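quick one before i forget lol
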Amino acid sequence: MAKKKKAIYRVTNWREYNESLVRRGDITLWFEEDVLSAWEHSNSDVKVGRPFIYSDTAIECLLSLRELFRLPYRQTEGLGRALMKLMEVEVAIPSFTLLAKRAAKLKVALNVANSSGPLEMVVDSTGLKIVGGGEWQSFAYRHPKRRTWRKLHLSINPVTQEIVAELLTSKSWDDAAQVHKLLDQVAGPVEKLYADGAYDKWSLYDLLKRQAIEPVIPPRRNAAIKQHGNCAAGRLPRDEAVRGMRRLGRKGWKRQVGYHRRSLVETSIYRLKQYFGDHLKNKAFANQQTEVRIRCKLLNHFTQLGMPNFRWN
């Protein structure tokens, strides 16, 4: 029997993709004219106490550099001073303590590209460490120090591969219970939601039914039909998935409904951790939320600069 040839893929837009990779390290990309012109706070809004000196744009710009180069707050302040000196721009740089304080209340937009028509969403979650050593250290030395982490819930658009919603919670929160908060962050209508078996909860199916969203979620292996075909009410999507699996098998059903698009969110999670690491630098929860939000915005920016196009051989 002839050995099956392994499929390989080739990047068909290597020149454009290579240029996008180079531009990700271009610091001038973050200090454009509109950023520098809006560096000082206008203080037009009503605020009790001492007025702000630096705008949210200035704080977000420096925090973006902090995440991009994985720096502590003090080194971020030093990098900002050096860059302004090299660029010969007369603007002041906020201190590291001010950066930390402003980061706790900073509102960051993900800057998702506009799309026409209803969206499809792919959701999943991952852990980000905040305390304790890694797996190898804990295993090798039986590390007694407690380990804890936050759970990051992500939703991406499988067409553009942009992160359209994110949510940081404690490690104990259930994945399916956070979907409504992810949906609230999406501006347009959603027509289909892909998720893995951890989201197989009737509470989530009820939520998606109310919002007219088609679920693509594999039921657990011992799932039973809740509402049989002779019932006067309309058929339930989960029951239809169970019937499809009984008829086609689990792999056949996944292939038929396009379930494997869900792997795109795992790719986004991998990219996020490759670029920015799997640890959170901040200790305060409010700062951690801003830290994760900026990482997701940066990843969207990288995606918009250019992604590889593949051709399978």
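fyi The chain is about 40% helix and 15% strand.
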